[in-house]
Amino acid sequence: MKPATPSSMIEITLDTIRREVPHQFTLLQACRSAGIEVPTLCFLDGMTPASACRICMVEVEGSRVLVPACSRQVERGMVVRTDSERVRLARRMVMEFLASSVDLSLAPGAQEYVNRYGARPERYGSKDLPAPATVAQPVKVDNDLYVRDLSRCILCYRCVDACGEEAQNTFAISVAGRGFDARIATEFDRPLPDSACVFCGNCIGVCPTGALIFKSEHEMRRDGSWDESRQTQTDTICPYCGVGCALTLHVQDNRIVKATSPQDHTVTGGHLCIKGRFGWQFVQAPEK
Amino acid sequence: MHRGAKLYVVDPRRTSSARWAHAWLGLDVGSDIALANAMAREILDAGLQHDAFIARATMGFDKYQDCVAPYTLEEGERLTGVPASLIRQLAHDYARASRAQLCWTLGITEHHNAVDNVLALINLALLTGHVGRYGSGVNPLRGQNNVQGGGDMGALPNKLPGFQDVEDGALRSKFERAWKASIPPKKGWHLTGMFEAMERGELRNVYIIGENPAQSEADVQRAMHLLEGLDQLVVQDLIMTRTAEMAHVVLPAAASWCETEGTVTNSERRVQRVRKAMEPPAEARDDLAILVELARRLGHDWGHPTAEEVWDELRSLSPMHAGMSYRRLDTMGGIQWPCPDENHAGTQFLHARLWEEPVKGPRALFSVVEFEPPVDTLTEEFPIRLTTGRRLDSFNTGVQTRAFASPLRRGETLDISPEDGARYGVAEDEVVRVTSRRGSVVVPVRYDAGLRPGLAFMTLHFPDEVETNRLTIEANDPKSGTAEFKASAIRIDRLDSGSAGRRDKEWISA
């Protein structure tokens, strides 16, 4: 985005304080520039907002309904409340729905929102009440690189968008089904190796809840050997082609356990291909 | 394609990129110059050339105009196999675009006339003024993470670091003063030249760092024979490659992208830091440490320099790198050369000088280049054109990529069009014998509807199973030394019947 010129600044009111913000800002950008924290789950810098999770809802005076801060553009004279009781109630409900139906144990950000907004997911079912409806299903393990644990999926659409127009343009996955039965799926729900998937892993890179996860990480977590306190993260450059993607190597006990890419990197904005994301085993292969 | 961009893909194969393109120009292998010259002739006929740019910033236009004159659209179609209407469409869209880039990879450079291919594309950029401005230009996409950096650092037979000519006495003495050593005043051999020198017996000792020529060279049987005949072969690598297996001495190296510190330079000339993320295995050492130790045993004490100290010495000798301190590379996320001082932000695109008033430095030269077909001619005996390349999940001779379990990997195949499958009576998955004038391999067939009849495709990724380079030709460009990996002539024989005679004579176990 180009820096705003003074003539394109407009005045809005954020939590009773008047502020000048660039006219093309979203409410989320305006809040962040003013130092006001708005919670987000589906939003990711650098991608078009999906407006799916509804955790960033804020109250705009004159609007019948709450609006998503991530995608709503500022308007001259807007009066916005980001932490009113109505806003907090909406966010509490969002987190109760999510936390009662989805396994959020690998989503520390979401857990923090559960606590912050006093969500009580047990209201929708617990050991004393009938069990809550959940999205639980068996883990899909159909290849050696990554697994799909859709019991952890909050349908934020980040993976769909990263696979599609926002990054990879492969379109291997989309949302299938309606309402509570909606799930992320390949075409005809085929196994990944039989789908259009090119195994770039950019879906894993953007997944906020661990629903898409490296097989190596999945297995280490399952057998209890995954230990982030013993891991280092080092930024380097991919050893393959001439694009020069940045790789963050996560190393535990002198072995690479996964590779990610920083989203603020100039060259590819955090996106990789199959070789960069998964092709690092040769430095620790037995034959070396 | 997004935001109104147009993409044209010029490739003998209908690749996955071609499926996204507005148009695919499926030209015959090695007819790139004919296509470029036909585009130029059409641009001139339609009056779409950038006259002002040609007048102010170029030279040699008249001779170029004469050279492309015979390449009419019809002649272009005859030489390339691309319909004249498509050549015309690409020529017009390219010339009329406000910004346009020509991007290429080894399909242009792995030919016996590689340099001429590149010059033909540069001619188009000069003709239309699509150079030296943001969003325009000529863009060779590098195939390895530091092939640009290797050249920048002087790993070329005629250059010192920073592309400073080794045969220029003043530049050479600058380095000699800094290094307190004398530098041979004549340029050396490139890789192809080295193999020729081995053949003549002039090169008897070879020290190879991080390359696997025993599997990557075109006409690999010749390469193996020459390597086997050396007095001494030293290989420094992190993997026990086929080349390393042949060596008298193997120096185990650390992985220079995750076990050591340093820099690499990508396709857009961006120098970026690689960092040590883990310890190498006990026996392996940093390339730098190996070289320093080797120097010490040869009687030169270089101390124990860090990667940054070596880089700072480079900055003191190579003006285009002078402004790139490690601190700046870290904070700026890489810098594009040239970057002459520490206040310079780096250079996003080159050749802006061609648009300055008046033009600074020499004018850009149009080159006269003519179409020449590939060396390995198609005949009745060898009727099929074989071209080679990569597949998405694999890399070169596979020594790096074979270690990970790719769900996309299906091993080596001979990819042919379904039409050729019917014509030669070979089914998918049938194992056939593929023979060129140099050698023969046995490989399963795969149909690929993206190939036109008469065109076959293989990779170099699985040399332990299928040694594709037995088929390829080492005919090479005299200027760049690049072999014509992209154009061999082959035939396909069924294994079961009718070919036993030829098999007895020529079959070489794969």
What can you tell me about this protein's structure?
The complex is a heterodimer of chains A (288) and B (510). With 288 residues, chain A is an alpha+beta fold. Chain A folds into three domains: 6-83, Ubiquitin-like (UB roll); 87-124, no CATH class; 146-284, N-terminal domain of TfIIb (Single Sheet), CATH 2.20.25.90. Helices cover 20% and strands 19% of the residues of chain A. In chain A, the strands form four sheets. Chain A has a five-stranded mixed beta sheet, with helices on both faces. Chain A has a three-stranded antiparallel beta sheet with strand order 10-11-12. Chain A has a two-stranded antiparallel sheet with strand order 6-9. In chain A, a hairpin with a 2-residue loop joins strand 1 and strand 2. Chain B has 510 residues and is an alpha/beta fold. Chain B has three domains: 8-135 and 357-361, Dimethylsulfoxide Reductase, domain 2 (3-Layer(aba) Sandwich); 147-336, 3-Layer(aba) Sandwich (Rossmann fold); 384-506, Barwin-like endoglucanases. Helix content of chain B is 32%, strand content 16%. Chain B has helices spanning 16-20, 32-45, 51-57, 61-68, 73-80, 84-96, 106-109, 114-128, 147-152, 169-179, 191-200, 213-216, 220-228, 242-246, 287-297, 307-317, 326-332, 418-424, 500-506, and strands spanning 8-10, 23-25, 58-59, 101-104, 137-140, 159-160, 164-165, 205-209, 232-237, 249-252, 262-265, 270-274, 335-336, 364-365, 384-389, 414-416, 431-436, 440-447, 455-459, 488-494. In chain B, the strands form seven sheets. In chain B, strands 15-19-16-18-17-20 form a six-stranded mixed beta barrel. The longest helix of chain B is centred in the N-terminal third of the chain and has 15 residues, at 114-128. The interface between A and B is large, with 44 and 47 residues.
Give the termini separation of chain B.
Answer: 43 Å
Q: Please bin the fraction of helical residues of chain B.
A: 25-40%
The number of helical elements of chain B comes to 19
CATH architecture of the largest domain in chain A: Single Sheet
Mean pLDDT reading of chain B: 94
Number of helices of chain A: 7
Biggest sheet of chain A: strands side by side, in what order? 2-1-5-3-4
Largest interface, chains and sizes: A-B, 44 and 47 residues
Helix percent of chain A reads 10-25%
Largest sheet of chain B: 6 strands, mixed, barrel
The helix/strand class of chain A is alpha+beta
Report the top-level CATH class of the largest domain in chain A. Mainly Beta
Major sheet strand order of chain B = 15-19-16-18-17-20
Strand content of chain B: 15-25%
CATH topology of the largest domain in chain A: N-terminal domain of TfIIb
SS content category of chain B: alpha/beta
Shape of chain B: globular
| Biggest sheet details of chain A | 5 strands, mixed
Average pLDDT of chain A = 93
